[in-house]
Amino acid sequence: MSDIFQEVEEDVRRERYEQLWKKYGNYVIAAAAVLVLVVAGYQAWAAYDTNQRQQVSDKYEGAQKIAGTGKAADAEPQFAELSQSGYSGYATLSKFNLVGAYLAQNKRDQAVALLRELTEYSDDEVSSIARLRLAWLEADARPRGELLPIVEPLTAADNPWRFAAAEVLAYAELRGGSRVQAEADYLKLSQEAEASPGLRDRAAAILQYLRANPAAGAPAPAPAAVPAPSAAPAPAAVPSKGTTK
After folding, report:
1. How far is 218 from 170, CA to CA, in rounded Å?
2. How many CA atoms lie within 13 A of 65 on its CB side?
3. 15 or 93, which is more confident?
4. pLDDT of residue 149
């Protein structure tokens, strides 16, 4: 008797599955097809994106090589094109390189304008580096009062760029005729344990020069590399006049 009930139960279950399949089978097939298309579409997009990134990377490397040979005029349009790419890391790095290309061709106004644009970036690293490069670019043309607003956001006690900002302001003090204050600033910087060794050494060297040459004017600031933002794979440091972290 139990076998009969079991057979009836299996028949009922099979009939129910058949009814469900007739009712919803097309939807299941459609859903499976959509899933396959989505996966295939994503894989195709990922392959395309990887290819595009590689092309941008190759173009960036090529532009850097051209700039490295001193052909700033040839590198400029390439960096300009890359700066408009959809990959923010390479776009940002290209803008910093474009600043260098402008300066190599004495296009100071374009360089200043682009650095001011970069100071408005929400990325703190990018905006901080742009501020320092802009401040050093303007250091020989503007008084301390006009340089201060550029670097003031970096002067907070917990800001990692505070010593680099202080170096710019010390040079501005010296160039503006406040020699005593400048010497005090350089002395303080040379003794800052948390400042980079390179920055301390520069400050000490300038202080030594000033003390040994009381009548001398402001020496040209020693160039130091401002690191490029780490926004793209294996970026090369963008050299600039000014300071290090």
Report:
1. 10
2. 6
3. 93
4. 96
Residue 153 confidence (pLDDT) above 80: yes
pLDDT tens sequence across 71-130: 999 999 999 998 887 677 889 999 999 999 999 999 999 999 999 999 999 899 999 999
Q: What is the pLDDT of residue 56?
A: 79
CB of 92 within 8 A of CB of 84?
no
Q: What share of the chain has pLDDT > 90, as a percent?
A: 53
Q: Are 195 and 216 in contact (CB under 8 A)?
A: no
Per-residue b/e over 14-51, b at no fewer than 16 CB within 10 Å?
eeeeeeeeeeeeeeeeeeeeeeeeeeeeeeeeeeeeee
- Percent helix, strand and coil across the chain, each to the nearest 5: 70, 0, 30
Distances (CA, A) of 157 to 26, 132, 160, 194: 66, 17, 8, 11
Q: How far apart are CA 191 and CA 197, in angstroms?
A: 10
CB contact set of 175 (below 8 Å; sequence gap of 6+): 139, 140, 218
Reported pTM: 0.71
Specify the residue for token string 């580096």.
Answer: 129
Question: Would you say 95 and 114 are in contact if contact means Cβ atoms under 8 Å apart?
Answer: yes
More confident residue, 41 or 168: 168
C-alpha distances out from residue 25 to 11, 20, 28, 31, 163, Å: 20, 7, 5, 10, 70
DSSP 218: P
Burial (CB count within 10 angstroms: exposed 0-12, middle 13-18, buried 19+), residue 164: buried
